[in-house]
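User: Teach me something about this protein's shape.
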Amino acid sequence: MLAKRIVPCLDIKNGRTVKGVNFVNLIDAGDPVELAKQYALAGADELVFLDISATLEGRATTLDMVLRVAEHVNIPFTVGGGISSIEDVDVLLKHGADKISINSSAVKNPDLINQLSKKFGGQCIVVAIDAKQIEGEWIVHLAGGTIPTEIKLFDWAQEVEQRGAGEILFTSMNHDGTKNGFANEALSKLSSLVNIPIIASGGAGTKQHFVDTFVDGKADAALAASVFHFGEISIIELKEELRRNNIEIRL
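Assistant: First, the predicted structure itself:
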């Protein structure tokens, strides 16, 4: 069995790490380079770096920040935000990213997934899906959760796998920042429908929430932000708790 992964997420806006609730009301959470260094030393398995306003502002991810973060970490590092072409990905990988994450651009041009997977290999292509449960149906949203679509989460997840994505990062907008636990029912269904790893995102508040998403949600990795940024949960203590619950994890 593959070890489960703990993944701190650095949401970046205007060069600073930020965190909000349900994708709004953002507050400052510190310098992304310093946080990245701390997480690498603290035992994080991977990092995700999302330039959350890049798509809304119609610009590419900040390359300088990517380079600086990459220089200070020795763990896999995923970058997302404003990526819409082979050229974008090529530059990011050359600046130190190990994987890239696409979201809105994949929905607008699904063939981009095929192109990137063919060019760079599916192992470094993560498709992020932001979805909100509306009247019982999980609906995909774009541009940092600001634009609803008519696309259903489970249909889209299966399509991105077929097109060559190597991993799915699913964020529940309903759970984001609430600290009430992950969307484990949806995660479990996703896991049963696709054969690529699923990263759970949105809702982490306690160590038990991580246990639950690995056991009940069948997630392969769990991503969180504020509980790590503000020192509410220690990564090493979290991993020890997971081990006590017989969850395979790297210490």
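Now, about its shape. The CA atoms of residues 104 and 142 lie 5 Å apart. The radius of gyration is 16 Å. If you'd like, I can walk through any region in more detail.
User: That's plenty for now, thanks!
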